[in-house]
Amino acid sequence: MSYTTVLFDVDGVMLGEDTYFNATSQTVHELIVTDRFLGRARQEPDPNRERLAEIRRQVLGPHDEVLDFLKGRGVNSNWDMVYLMVCHSLLKNLARAEDKQWAQDLCQRGIVLADFPGIREKVDVQPAFADFTADFPGELEKHQFLSYLNQLAREWLGVETDAFGRTSRLWEETRQIFQEFYLGDGKQKPGYLEREEPIVPGTELQALLAKLSGLGVQLGIATGRPHQETMIPLGALGVLNYIPQERIATASTVLEAEAETSVAPLAKPHPFSYLRALRGAGPTHAELLQEKLPLNRPDVLVVGDSLADLLAARALGVSFAATLTGHEGERARGMFEAHGADHILRDVRDLAQLFEV
Question: How do residues 221-253 score in pLDDT, each as one tens digit?
Fold first, then answer.
């Protein structure tokens, strides 16, 4: 197959994922465990490496079991992961509340951060991280996890609600706490943005992109990172010399499209971000959502590291190359083979072999 377009994911393809997963575990830990929000433990805005590893084991499991569980079912957004884990522990604890009506009312109208002091007064909140994988059915995929929180509220608290989900106020509030950790808050949290580590050396990544550009291949990016977290590290790697900004779709792009069109969720594995990167600045968000999919464009190649990327590529109707440099590494090979990935690459540099004459 002669590819005319290559659309890249970022995390697990160009940049390592550990910084994001560390920020995820710290965010959940602060919201559930520390005295800034629901817990009793001292707030830890900037733990050392050893303590951070301990927090990650507590939140995501000794061997990242929660992370594997979610990513293996297409949940690729760190913002969604934070919200899911926080709401799961919240619901588990509210189910123990003596004042059942109060807990039901909270769940029915939608919990917000302003409710956390009152929850802490009424309930001795304990983390439920160890129960997470057992409390969600194994057959759930993608954004079914978010809506399943409403089912847990029905089962555990006996309340009918649709307040939990991607458009809830608490989702946005927990996203902002995550951003404090990732970008820094200008006070105690120094942020992770300066700790990014490329998967391959910047010079080699630039050489690959230069080769593709020289062959006339159109390049784009679709990432679950917000705009700032995308542009700063990729600029430092020299990637932005080869990929025009109008073909870079980020989580900020997705939030903008959701606000404009009132359609949500549009994050991966929805194909929107890859379609946005493919089409560039021309069509409006609403016009993109009107396009008939799949496109039947095997000449377009998505390069990603996760099931969410593969599902997005399939929904878009394009080819898919998997890199084994994501969180699961070589362990992901079987999953990609089972889902029929067109190519499986050791790392993004192997992409050059697909363009050799």
Answer: 999 999 999 999 999 999 999 999 999 999 999
* pLDDT of res. 357: 58
- Dist. CA 130–CA 154, nearest whole Å: 21
Asked whether 128 and 96 are in contact (CB, 8 A), the reply is: no
CB atoms near residue 173 (< 10 Å): 17
Kindly list the domain boundaries of the chain, sorted by start residue: 5-15+197-355, 18-193
- Walk along the chain (357 residues) in steps of 10 and give the mean pLDDT of each run: 94 93 96 97 93 97 95 89 98 97 97 98 97 95 92 97 95 96 90 89 96 97 94 94 96 96 93 97 95 97 96 97 94 95 98 88
How many other C-beta atoms can be found within 10 angstroms of the C-beta atom of residue 332?
24
Domain 5-15+197-355 coded CATH 3.10.20.340: no
Token output for 286: 């609403």
Cα–Cα distance for residue pair 351/330, rounded to 1 Å? 17
* Measured CA distances, 177 to 28, 196, 299, 344, 357 (Å): 9, 19, 40, 36, 49
